[in-house]
Predict the structure.
Amino acid sequence: MTIAADATVAPRTPLRVGLRYDMRVPAEFGRSTQELYGAALEQASWAEAKGFDDIKVTEHHG
Protein backbone atom coordinates (compact mmCIF):
# COMPACT_ATOMS: atom_id res chain seq x y z
CA MET A 1 0.00 0.00 0.00
CA THR A 2 1.33 3.43 -0.93
CA ILE A 3 0.33 6.60 0.90
CA ALA A 4 0.69 9.93 -0.86
CA ALA A 5 3.14 12.32 0.74
CA ASP A 6 0.42 14.90 1.31
CA ALA A 7 -2.06 12.44 2.84
CA THR A 8 -3.11 13.05 6.42
CA VAL A 9 -3.72 10.26 8.86
CA ALA A 10 -6.47 10.69 11.40
CA PRO A 11 -5.32 10.35 15.02
CA ARG A 12 -6.12 6.99 16.52
CA THR A 13 -8.39 6.67 19.48
CA PRO A 14 -6.75 4.48 22.12
CA LEU A 15 -8.38 1.13 22.76
CA ARG A 16 -10.24 1.03 26.07
CA VAL A 17 -10.57 -2.30 27.86
CA GLY A 18 -13.00 -3.03 30.65
CA LEU A 19 -15.15 -5.61 32.40
CA ARG A 20 -18.95 -5.67 32.60
CA TYR A 21 -20.90 -7.73 35.12
CA ASP A 22 -24.53 -8.81 35.31
CA MET A 23 -24.87 -9.94 38.90
CA ARG A 24 -28.09 -11.95 38.64
CA VAL A 25 -27.68 -15.51 39.94
CA PRO A 26 -30.07 -18.02 38.37
CA ALA A 27 -30.71 -21.13 40.50
CA GLU A 28 -29.21 -23.43 37.87
CA PHE A 29 -25.91 -21.50 38.04
CA GLY A 30 -24.96 -23.57 41.07
CA ARG A 31 -23.17 -20.81 42.97
CA SER A 32 -24.26 -18.54 45.78
CA THR A 33 -24.57 -14.78 45.48
CA GLN A 34 -21.63 -14.46 47.86
CA GLU A 35 -19.43 -16.63 45.62
CA LEU A 36 -20.44 -14.65 42.53
CA TYR A 37 -19.69 -11.29 44.13
CA GLY A 38 -16.44 -12.59 45.60
CA ALA A 39 -15.26 -13.80 42.18
CA ALA A 40 -16.26 -10.49 40.56
CA LEU A 41 -14.33 -8.48 43.18
CA GLU A 42 -11.28 -10.70 42.73
CA GLN A 43 -11.43 -10.23 38.95
CA ALA A 44 -11.93 -6.47 39.33
CA SER A 45 -8.86 -6.22 41.54
CA TRP A 46 -6.83 -8.18 38.98
CA ALA A 47 -8.14 -6.00 36.13
CA GLU A 48 -7.26 -2.79 37.97
CA ALA A 49 -3.72 -4.05 38.57
CA LYS A 50 -3.41 -4.84 34.84
CA GLY A 51 -4.51 -1.34 33.82
CA PHE A 52 -8.06 -1.96 32.64
CA ASP A 53 -9.94 1.27 31.99
CA ASP A 54 -13.24 0.53 33.69
CA ILE A 55 -15.46 -2.00 35.42
CA LYS A 56 -19.24 -1.83 35.07
CA VAL A 57 -21.97 -3.54 37.03
CA THR A 58 -25.41 -3.51 35.44
CA GLU A 59 -28.56 -2.90 37.40
CA HIS A 60 -31.53 -5.24 37.10
CA HIS A 61 -35.06 -4.59 38.33
CA GLY A 62 -37.61 -7.34 38.70
Remarks:
- Strands lie at 18-21, 54-57.
- Residues 1 and 7 are 13 Å apart (CA to CA).
- Residues 18-57 form one domain.
